[in-house]
Fold this sequence. Notes:
The chain has helices at residues 48-58, 73-76, 105-118, 122-132, 160-171, 193-204, 219-224, 235-238, 254-299; strands at residues 3-7, 15-16, 32-38, 41-47, 63-67, 88-91, 96-99, 102-103, 138-144, 148-153, 175-180, 183-188, 208-212, 227-230, 246-248.
Amino acid sequence: MTVLVASDLDRTLIYSTAALGLTMPDQVAPRLLCVEVHESKPLSYMTETAAKLLAELTTGPDVVFVPTTTRTRKQYQRIRFPGRPAKYAICANGGQLLVDGVPDRDWRRQVAARLAEECAPLEEVHAHLLAGADPAWLRKARVAEDLFAYLVVERALVPPEWIKALAEWAEDRGWTVSLQGRKIYAVPRPLTKSAAVREVARRTGATTTLAAGDSLLDADLLLAADAAWRPGHGELADAGWTAPTVTPLATTGVLAGEEIVRAFVRTAARETAREDAREDARQDAREITRSAGEIGTLGS
């Protein structure tokens, strides 16, 4: 069998300095491993324990690890995870499927066709974002991979009613709004991580999918998995969101990332052991059937 492990990255698996959440005394803080450098400066971290566990997970023969992120390809490719490089990676919230680091053109064409059919154009949404943003709190406006738009803001200064109104406006046009840290995302509703993960599962023959994520844009991914986890921080935690197959963790910050990797390792091992036991039972049944056939032949 194959277990597919699809994990969101920022504030789920990896953490910036501001998101580490190191509230414990310094002398007992976890040792950290830098996994991303940007402009010659360390940017994102995991605990050393999480990094070791992830390396063990990704080198197993029955596990396919799929980084699954809203980041662009360029942003994703700055990350250096321990262990075997991921053959598949999902970027731009499902808009880009990378195979050995190369964008899959067929997947991108499928995504483009669906967005053109079901959503308002990116240009309309981007223009609306810019028209409504206040220079007092807007810091940057970006378009990612020609698929979605986002604003970098001073979050404390953004009026909640403005975000609510934006979400209502976007919903009528087939788009979703998500607030993550200092970024306000506007993403086409059909542009989902879960659709890309299902495509990877189809290609790899995965029989079980495990997932983790912290934001509204991860909800579809968690619901599509056989088992999933969300940390004790983020949009989903703030909303108290959960589902029958989703385990809400109380842990926050970088230690939540470590707990999530532990859950991946534990559950993948359990699923593999179950399938091994089922295969042994099937083999025993085949042996019994063959033996019965041989006895019948001798008797005749």
